[in-house]
Design a protein that fits this description.
GO biological process, one term: response to red or far red light
Helix content: 55-70%
Distance between the termini: 104 Å
Radius of gyration: 44 Å
Structural class: mainly alpha
Strand order of the largest sheet: 1-4-5
Pfam family, one: DUF641
Largest sheet: 3 strands, antiparallel
Order of helices and strands: HHHHHHHHHHHHHHHHEEHEEEE
Shape: elongated
Number of helices: 17
Strand content: 5-15%
């Protein structure tokens, strides 16, 4: 190596001279008078020799790898001392700038100067730790340990980079296949139609329940109640059970347009029993998909007879089917006794009831789990008809009579936030009241 290219050896006298020059810190603790003008910001340009700003440089910070590459501990220590002296010089300049920012008082400059001073302190602390650990770095055993660790990490990095390249290659090969599958799924959805699975009896709910999904459940529940009401009416004709003398809680002052309209009273009875007065623990959303995944509702019930859906069926059957009705239909109370003991009879009558019960259970489960929560509402008898939140079961009466009002609610309505699902009502000529 060329001797002139070697670093000049630091002598004790030159080191002390530089330290004494750096330590000449000027205070700016007294504000200048009106006549005195503050000196130019020489610290920013490095023009003040008294402040030692000419000593401020932008050092290349000594790293661990540089110290490891040094063959002599003295050289490593000398490099750290050089950087430490430069850092102290920068710390002094930053301190002077912080004082000058107070004269005159400038909050913005004070903030900037304070951040610079803190940065210089952190740099000095790093160099201090570096200098303390110089002797440890000079230990050959420690150097071998660090070198082996570096090689291990470099090998690990190479392996990770190879895995990343491999995964990116696999993604590139799989992406066209994914695009093709998505295209086929969209074509199948268009071909099958959105209601095909629902017509088969399957239904699943996903996160982010929409009003359209809730409306679909509402229509399924209404249809299930209508079908079971027709089934009950057919049994009354066969058994001779008098529907006019039944215990259905319908206002006797309702004027029916025709005798067949009494079916709406039966529907209203079952809708009220199946949708009102239930405990919250009967409607957990986590069991919704399991119950609705079965094509046959009775299979869903027998899959877990003591589940929340099973308890719902038991409680609602004992409420919806009076003893007098069951005794008139079958000549005994075997169904009731079996259900009270915790069983579910595998008969056509009970299976029809379970079909209706699953639809109403699903509606209530989603209603109580939605956000915002779906609020159910009924319309009392005698209330004036309003199209905004009511739907008539007999639309002809709306134009024939002006003094018509609600006779009874056939199917309750729901309110979800600002969306309203209108309730179905039977209109009568009873005296109208304000809503």
């Amino acid at each position: 190596m060329d001797p002139t290219a070697r670093k000049t050896k630091r002598t004790p006298s030159s080191l002390l001279f530089r330290i004494s020059d750096i330590c000449k810190v000027h205070s700016v603790g007294v504000a200048p008078t009106v006549r005195e003008k503050p000196k130019a910001d020489s610290t920013a340009t490095g023009g003040s020799s008294k402040d030692g700003a000419h000593l401020k440089v932008h050092p290349h910070q000594v790293s661990d790898s540089e110290c490891l590459s040094e063959s002599s501990p003295a050289r490593c220590q000398g490099a750290v001392v050089d950087q430490l002296l430069d850092a102290i010089s920068g710390l002094k300049v930053a301190y002077v700038n912080l004082q000058q920012a107070h004269v005159p008082y400038d909050p913005e400059k004070i903030t900037i100067a304070d951040e610079r001073f803190v940065s210089e302190l952190e740099e000095t602390a790093v160099l201090k730790n570096l200098y303390v650990n110089v002797n440890e770095w000079s230990n050959p055993r420690y150097l071998r340990h660090i070198s082996s660790r570096i090689q291990e990490h470099q090998k690990l990095v190479m392996e990770l980079q190879a895995n990343i390249c491999k995964k990116e290659s696999q993604i590139g090969w799989l992406r066209p296949e994914l695009d093709e599958l998505e295209r086929k799924n969209m074509a199948l959805e268009d071909k099958i139609g959105p209601d095909a699975l629902h017509r088969e009896g399957y239904f699943t709910i996903r996160k982010g329940m929409s009003t359209e999904i809730f409306m679909h459940l509402y229509e399924r529940s209404s249809k299930g109640i209508q079908d079971f009401a027709k089934f009950i009416i057919s049994w009354t004709k066969v058994s001779g059970w008098n529907l006019d003398q039944s215990t259905f809680p319908i206002d006797n002052h309702v004027v029916y347009q025709k005798r067949a309209d009494k079916k709406y009273a039966v529907e209203a009875y079952f809708a009220c029993v199946m949708l009102m007065g239930d405990r919250e623990d009967c409607f957990p959303l986590d069991s919704f998909d399991r119950v609705m995944s079965f094509k046959d509702p009775f299979d869903a019930l027998m899959n877990a007879p003591d589940s929340s859906f099973g308890r719902y069926c038991k409680a609602k059957y004992l409420m919806a089917v009076p003893q007098s009705m069951e005794d008139s239909f079958f000549g005994n109370l075997d169904h009731r006794t079996f259900v009270e003991s915790g069983g579910h009879p595998r008969t056509t009558f009970y299976q029809k009831f379970v079909t209706m019960a699953r639809n109403t259970w699903a509606l209530l489960t989603v209603a109580r789990s939605s956000n915002p929560r779906a609020e159910m509402f009924y319309v009392k008898a005698g209330v004036q008809f309003r199209k905004e939140h009511m739907e008539s079961t007999a639309a002809s009466m709306i134009t024939e009579e002006e003094n018509i009002s609600v006779g009874f609610t056939v199917m309750p309505g729901f309110k979800i936030g600002y969306a309203v699902i209108r309730c179905r009502v039977y209109l009568s000529t009873v005296k109208a009241k304000d809503f």
